[in-house]
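Students often ask why we bother encoding 3D structure as a string. The short answer is that it lets us treat folding as translation between two languages. Here is a chain of 206 residues written in the first language.
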Amino acid sequence: MSKKDKNKHIYTLELTERQARILSYACDHASRIICGQDWTYQEFLEAAWEKRAKEATGNRMDDDFEGGWQQMRDDAEKMCKEMKQRFWGLPGNAMYGIHYDDVSDILFSLHQVIRHQLWLDGDRKFRGVDSDDPMCYGSEPLAVMRKADIWRDSNNEQPTDEKWVITFDVEMQCAIDRCKHIKPNHVWAYLEDIAPINWTRRIAKH
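And here it is in the second language, the structure alphabet:
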């Protein structure tokens, strides 16, 4: 099957911010694992041990659990370097990167697109790799990501055809009136700050 056949369709995926961050994390780590970057899969081994330690003792770095955290970390590092040597044929201080594998490159480009958009939609206080423009690696064009003009409430209810649907009691009316001068995307943060009472909201596309 040609690349053209594989790209018969273009897809849109709606994500919450947390889902987007998790997807970015997954793309980044999957890309690095493909390249044999052993510290990446070592991270998962350590996290699994820490989870068990915390469940058993209440302390994820407990020194009395199965030899202690430092022993576990030394074991994980040794095992991962052995895996890299055995399967990637690389010595302990070497690893592959960009252009080693097409899927890895595509995954890393996806990670860049997501992290950059999240940075753009944040407070932009800090500049670093997140603020860098995404680079296109691999055989696919850069993905496109933008913040949606659609909000869901905490129960994940579908948006309606109306721009704003608010359920509120009388106490909210004054707060609503004071919101008329505020941009629509900023209204709910404002309301939550000044009137933390029970209410629901749904916003559809403008």
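Translate back mentally: The CA atoms of residues 168 and 199 lie 5 Å apart. Keep this in mind for the problem set.
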